[in-house]
């Protein structure tokens, strides 16, 4: 251990440590065995030390029987012998002072080894921030990075232990801690080998994982044989430290065998899952959420997580609308690290998957095909409603076509499609409103042009002043120029802190509870508009009491229309405990009751809790003239002409052919406004 603890100071530790350790063990073992044989052959176990008794016993006087050290060794009269007298070696030796000199030499060598190695280990612990408020001892001095502060601390602790004044009291405790350490090291070696990690490559040719396991078990046995109560104390301290560090989740990454075991068990579990047969009872909605920049659409992320709750797959898809290049790949790798941390800070158990593609539809298709692995692949596509679809009239026709094509391709891929429309009419991208309200908008350190509106990254994403990723407020920009890419590339070469952030952070508009930020903006008292915007963004994180979910079951679409609302009523959802109302249609008044009974039977069959079932009899009724006129006004800019008939425009013949379907949907809108305007969610 002395060599392992200072392995960083050795020229060739892989050679020096095995040779030095084995030679030291061999030498000391021979010395200990010779000493044991000599003392065992020349000394009795217990003796009272009275020479006259031995003489009398030799003369058959019988006086020795009055003090029998064989049976009465614990009565306090037998103070000598191998078990009781600690200076036996000095009495056995030819020259007593030589033994004392050896004891001093052994003590000094052990003390120096511990004094050199222990502070260095403690320095590493301090730098990893494993325990609170100990980072001051991690400071190093000089070219060798000497831990002088840790030296002082070790000296103080050592003097405190020495002041106890009784080595026999200290020895069992110290020995048990050493044995506990050796047991953990042996088990760690075994565990690393058992995990089959390719990074674990011991160079000692006689190494065997089962010998390590046996050595660890032997250390534990010796701990309890030596002193069972100190062994329990040692075990308690080790377990308490392990649980604390596991709960604290330090930022340090040691490449531990736990990571290797997690990888191996996950891989085996996924292979086992892939080879298993699907069953409807085990169906889980595995959601691909088209978030773009997740920080800009935190509400969409939160809503999707209310469905998955960390119990099924959730992937946040981000299409970076640029052709593939080295610089784009560099950006994607940075984004993946940043937003993975952002999701962790927001307590969302999901994956972030960015891809580079020039179009929304093609990017969505790639995400549907490539996201996931084996059976862990998305089977539901969740998108935000394109609320501004008609804002730019014909100038935005290409965007509308891309949006529609993405939905159509999802259906062609045989996955469920869900579109979330925010009821407040503001949409789901709050980046502009956050900027206008001066909420969590950090200053720029250079990169001013990044990504387009349907996949925005924004300025704040790359600021060195960002407190944490929950504080990102992206701003759409017209183009990601080559100049911006050059800045991005140059910043990486200069080891710039463009992408740095403090994961400890502070609470702000996009943060989960308990996350704080150092941003000066978040420290100010928020205005009424800022508080309102914050509440709007976090609406899907705030539980709604006595909520109602309205499900419009117009036709059998596979059951997702009922299953998603059911999941939203379960625990850990903002609609936990909500009541489900089901609306269905009947072809005539005479079949209303039968349709209602059929729907009730279906809900009971699938064990879906519901409050009430309503049957709509007049679905075929013509919508109001005002609604028809409103529809005509909306589609008027998109009517095709003889000179302009681009893809996505509507011809007169198409309007006539789809008139009945159009009237049906307009009538459905009227019925929803009439019956479900007060519901928290309409499906």
Shape: elongated
Structural class: alpha/beta
Helical amount among residues, as a percent range?
Answer: 40-55%
> What is the number of beta strands?
9
Head-to-tail CA distance between termini: 65 Å
Provide the residue-averaged pLDDT.
Answer: 78
Radius of gyration (Å): 37 Å
Uncertain regions spanning at least 5 consecutive residues: 441-523
Main sheet: strands, sense, barrel: 5 strands, parallel
Task: Work out the oligomeric state of the chains in this entry.
Answer: single chain
Number of helices: 23
Number of domains: 4
Per DSSP, what share of the residues sits in E-state strands of 2 or more residues?
A: 5-15%
Q: What's the arrangement of strands in the largest beta sheet?
A: 3-2-1-4-5
Membrane topology: Multi-pass membrane protein
Organism: Plectus sambesii
GO molecular function: sodium:potassium:chloride symporter activity
Domain Amino acid permease/ SLC12A: 2-288
Structural notes for this entry:
With 683 residues, this protein is an alpha/beta fold. It folds into 4 domains: 2-162, no CATH class; 167-257, no CATH class; 295-493, no CATH class; 548-682, no CATH class. Helix content is 48%, strand content 7%. α5 (96-127) packs across α6 (148-162) and α8 packs across α9. The protein is elongated and about 120 Å long.
How does the SSE layout of this entry go?
Elements: H1 2-5, H2 13-42, H3 51-58, H4 88-92, H5 96-127, H6 148-162, H7 167-194, H8 209-226, H9 228-248, H10 257-274, E1 287-290, H11 298-308, E2 314-320, H12 326-345, E3 351-356, H13 360-370, E4 380-384, H14 397-412, E5 416-420, H15 431-436, H16 482-493, H17 520-523, H18 528-537, E6 548-553, H19 560-568, E7 579-585, H20 592-605, E8 612-616, H21 625-635, H22 652-657, H23 659-675, E9 681-682
Parallel strand pairs: 1-2, 1-4, 2-3, 4-5, 6-7, 6-9, 7-8
Helix pairs in contact: 5-6, 7-8, 7-9, 7-10, 8-9, 12-16, 13-14
Pfam families: AA_permease, SLC12
Membrane topology: Multi-pass membrane protein
GO molecular function, one term: sodium:potassium:chloride symporter activity
